[in-house]
Amino acid sequence: MARLRRGGIKQVQRQSMTMRKLAFVFSFAALAGAALFVLNNLGTSEETLANPGKDGSKTITTSNTIVNEYTTLTSNASSGSTTLNVAASTLNANGRFSGSLAAGDLVLIIQMQGASISTNNNSSYGTVSSYNSAGMYEFARVSARPNSTSITLSTGLRNSYNNSGKTQVIRVPRYTTLTINSGRSITCPDWDGSTGGVVAVEATQTVTINGSINANGKGFRGGVVEQNTVTPGTPSTYRTTSNAEGAEKGESIAGPASILGNGAFGRGAPANGGGGGNAHNGGGGGGSNAGSGTWTGNGNPDNSNANWTTAWNLESVGFSSTTSPGGGRGGYSWSSNGRNPITTAPGNAGWGGDNRQNSGGFGGRNLDNASTTRVFLGGGGGAGDSNNNTGTSGADGGGIVFVVAKGNIGGTGSVTANGDTPPNTSSCTTCYGDAAGGGGGGGSVVMHSLTGSLSTISISANGGNGGSQNIITTTGECESPGGGGGGGYVATSPRTGVTVTVNGGNNGHTDSPPMVNFTPNGATRGALGTTVVLPTTFNPYNTTNNTLPVTLVSFLIKPEEGAAAAEWATAAEKNNDYFLLERSSDGDNFEVVGRIAGSGTTTIPRKYIFTDPAPFPGTSYYRLKQVDYDGQSETFKTIPFDNNQKIGDLKIVEVSPNPFTNELRLIADIPEAGVISAEILSMGGAKVWETQSDVQDGRQVMHLQPEIKTPGVYLLRISDTAGKSTVMKVVKR
Question: Which strands form 698-704's sheet, in the order they lie side by side?
Fold first, then answer.
């Protein structure tokens, strides 16, 4: 039996906010640093994962396996609410789970659309005036399913959601481990305007991807080609209700083209959807997603051929060197006469027909998702304008992939959310081939390891290529290719050996004889997307530091005469019935070694101490679980304990990640409370960074944020006031 220190559980009120810390965080606000540690390393680990792993270990042995179930929000849901009204709450219509949705299951709430855009009939058309809740998302634990059309959450919503914005509620499998075998894959249904387009999985241990997670072309839909061109093309039609004046725009966070009542057609780009090619036979613009810079809609001209540079600059002086984030622009409109594009500018009457005007659809706009609070489907490409049944629709954008795991994420496979490429225009001996559609924008990938690492896999959210114009004729007629899709968004935990690409798609080409020296014929490439390393504060769950039943500020294990002494402190508690201290020999299988009464509801800081007299020989693993009066629970971070350790010497136990980018997590044995110095030294011994902090004795977890810009190999040294020091090699990425 575990023993209670000094005849019973010792429960001490904290008299100050700085008495005892779990870890020293190298910042000037010690308690704030400790609280940050709770959020970073506890608040997003298993406290939101009550009933983690309830769906067991999963190995994917087939291709195109769908693991999620989908429904829609039927009424608005406000921040703080615990009720979701949905079309069908069972969330097992396809039998992908062992039973209907129940307490302890996990759902993802994500609003797909609902942004407001400018409707001006000029180049500002489609500018996002307000995102509203488009792209907002959170994972939430289910506490009950009262009936067939409602779900109750254990914690209030972090965000507000609008049902008219096409908000999905997606059931997320809660695996212990997930393995995707080589040649096998997980995917999702196509986005159909209401549901689909998203893959989301959670694992309490490891995720091994030797096959793939594939959300290619699962995003916003491309504009649909039509055959009603009767009006000569004009560059000035940015939005119109007439499909005779322009082709259909791609779908975006503002909605499908069908709801754009004053502008379903024309070259203006609605948010991240590509604009449609203007009549007559202008190419569709590429869809988009992420990226940075000043958007112009003109994409990025391909200058890989010197003749092309010359041709671009005939459009306007210096155009060949202009750049724009987002999707690529569709090419020039119909011309009927053979001319040399290297010497004859677009719009010159000598081209005949519509004079080869700059009227292709604008590339989709880059979106603001760098904050990690929003993610978006890739925008659909705009359709090419057609009148002879040979044009093509715009391509679909990439979908969204979420992978959240407590342990390592790795493998030899891939995670992809690329935009699609539209078909090329028809080719035949008697037709001329109409304009092609734009490529789909790259989608979004969020991969987060709560306590492990991310390594070796490849991740891509590339834009699709624009469609090309196939034409078999010896005449001088020319039509337009489509613009390339813009790159997507990839956000991950710190990664090692992971290949990430968010490239823009290439523009299409034409094989019309007059364009032999300038095959892009005005179509441009999509731009690079965005990649980020998730901040340490990232938390995809709706549980926050303000809503946790228990605000834990410290949890540590110390040696004590052959025993293991667990100490933890709380800043506040809500409906806290009791704690369970659990022990494991392997870090996976735990047993309860002590039950300690909680303090109910209080805002007074509390401290708890419990001693396990019989830790396992060698290394034991301890974790703390908190249980509410209603039986709901949260489980905090696992801590290793070496039964052979003697805190007699200053010692660095572990440093991670290593290599590091901006932050180091250090575990160290501290023999005496006092001031600790942490230094980063060059390999030649020169000091490049230093900080100090007051610390407690015992095994401490420390967070360093070294201000080092130059990649390379360094020495991390910690020292105490007694002159003891210890050193470990670290690598700055």
Answer: 651-656, 664-670, 698-704
